[in-house]
Amino acid sequence: MAEPILSIEDLRVYYDTLLGPVRAVDGVTLEVPRGEWVSIVGESGSGKSTLAYAIMRLIPPPGRIAGGRIVFEGTDLTSLSGEEMRRVRGRRIGMVFQDPMASLDPVRRVGDQIGDVYLEHGVASDRREARRLAGEALEMVGLPASWVDRYPHQLSGGQRQRVLIAAAVALKPSLLIADEPTTALDVIVQDKIMDLIEDLKRELRMTVVLITHDIALAAERSTRIAVMYAGKLVEYGPVDAVVEDPLHPYTRGLIESAPDLWGEKRLRGIPGYPPDLRRPPSGCRFHPRCPLAVERCRSEEPRPLRLEGGRLVACHRALEGR
Ligand code: SF4
């Protein structure tokens, strides 16, 4: 495995509520090798987006990083001041958010919004230069430079997402985090946005972390897949190994819920719902939904097992019969 650009060590992110802390990310350890495309998959409430926001140190209150480290290019981001972290965001780590309309200011021209990135980081000395650079950033994502004068409502959903990607990669960061960037888009536009991210990854030599609920999309684009369930990392490994030979019953469930992977109807789905993270199930958090659960699963939490080939799985029964 290539040298990691990002090492997450025993990360815990909790949301304090009157009924006790919601353990949205609970002891996640994960290494992202430089130059790769790592997709983090799971259902809503699995903690995957919280993990992305924690890397950017953008967890809104009452959320907090309750423990662990996020080491990016040798620096523990959890130890940085707000000002130091502001310099990392945008310049060294870019982020694309889920909903482009919510992320763009509807009453400002897109050129000014992209231009903010250059001004904030001192790359442009005035608004005029910032707008010129914003035009170049728009061209980088396949839009005309003259569109700096457009407002978000004059663009389609896919074009707005391109504008956000332009802002995220404007300063050529080494890591791009994309949180469900195509959820609001139709399938054809979704594909084009993914192609764009792939092209930019190559051109700018970036590492990509994609957050998605869609394991078929992750399988198509990634070099590695990390599967999260109820705040825990349950499986991680090279994409072919995880998709062709999943070790965790939850990963198998996700794959069997994704018809696109084989182009045939194998839809089975996962019975039940993700748990309430204020009171997660004892032992393995997946046990109430797991077809393989045994008594031990109810009482003992499975520890992550590191296996050959850079694989990791957290399940008492993952290696049975192997
Ligand atoms: S530890 Fe037990 S309940 Fe959890 S995934 Fe494995 S078999 Fe299922």
- Named CATH topology of one domain: Rossmann fold
CATH uppermost class of one domain: Alpha Beta
Ligands: iron/sulfur cluster
**What's the main sheet like?**
8 strands, mixed
**How many strands?**
12
The Rg value, from CA coordinates, equals 20 Å
H and E order: EEEHEEHEHHHHEHEHEEHHHEE
- Helices, by number, come to 11
SS strand fraction: 15-25%
User: Given the helix and strand composition, which structural class is it?
Assistant: alpha/beta
Average pLDDT number: 94
The spatial strand order of the largest sheet comes to 6-7-8-3-9-10-12-11
For the termini, the CA-CA separation is 24 Å
The outline comes out as: globular
> Mind telling me the CATH superfamily name of one domain?
P-loop containing nucleotide triphosphate hydrolases
Topology summary:
Layout: E1 4-15, E2 22-33, E3 37-41, H1 48-55, E4 63-72, E5 75-76, H2 82-88, E6 93-96, H3 100-103, H4 110-120, H5 127-140, H6 157-169, E7 175-179, H7 187-204, E8 207-212, H8 215-221, E9 224-229, E10 232-238, H9 239-244, H10 249-256, H11 295-299, E11 305-307, E12 311-313
Parallel strand pairs: 3-8, 3-9, 6-7, 7-8
Antiparallel strand pairs: 1-2, 1-4, 4-5, 9-10, 10-12, 11-12
Helix pairs in contact: 4-5, 4-6, 5-6, 6-7
Bound molecules: iron/sulfur cluster.
Iron/sulfur cluster binds next to loops.
Provide structural commentary:
- The protein has an eight-stranded mixed sheet, with helices on both faces. A four-stranded antiparallel sheet has the order 2-1-4-5, covered by helices on one side.
- With 322 residues, it is an alpha/beta fold.
- The chain has a domain of 189 residues: P-loop containing nucleotide triphosphate hydrolases (Rossmann fold), CATH 3.40.50.300.
- 31% of the residues lie in helices and 23% in strands.
- The radius of gyration is 20 Å and the shape is globular.
- The two termini are 24 Å apart.
